[in-house]
Amino acid sequence: MKRAVAAVLALLISWTGAAAEGEMSPTIQDVKARHAARFLALPGVVSVGIGRDADGHEVIVIGLDRTRPETQARLPTQLEGYRVRMDIIGTVKAR
Fold first, then answer.
1. What CATH code is carried by the domain that includes residue 62?
2. Sheet containing 58-64, strands listed edge to edge, beginning at the edge strand earlier in sequence
3. What is the mean pLDDT of residues 21-49?
4. Are 71 and 48 spatial neighbours (Cβ–Cβ below 8 Å)?
């Protein structure tokens, strides 16, 4: 009986480990979509997009109309494993 219980436990442990390894990380597009509305609700945030850093890695880019220390302090530097960059881009006008 003890061997059967041990075998079942070993099987469950290996199965849950394999399931976790097989899970896919969210794409940067998914992460951006999930958080964009929250960022755009902050004062001075005029855009949320995707760009690249100096090393060519994808980053989430949050555009601000001007320097806003209070808003900038509320923005993360990383989000679900992706770096976040803040750019001062000025006011965005619709065409």
1. 3.30.300.50
2. 45-52, 58-64, 82-88, 78-79
3. 93
4. no
User: How many structural domains is the chain composed of?
Assistant: 1
Size of the chain in residues: 95
Residue type, 91: T
Residue 32 backbone zone (phi > 0: left; psi -120 to 50: alpha; other: beta): alpha
Kindly report the number of other CB atoms within 10 A of residue 24's CB atom: 5
Q: Please tell me the pTM assigned to this model.
A: 0.73
Q: Which residues pair with 49 in a beta bridge?
A: 61
| Measured CA distances, 15 to 21, 23, 79, 80 (Å) | 10, 13, 29, 25
Mean pLDDT of 69-92: 95
- Quickly count: other Cβ atoms within 10 Å of residue 6's Cβ: 10
In a domain, 75, yes or no: yes
- Residue 15 has which token pair? 């199965």
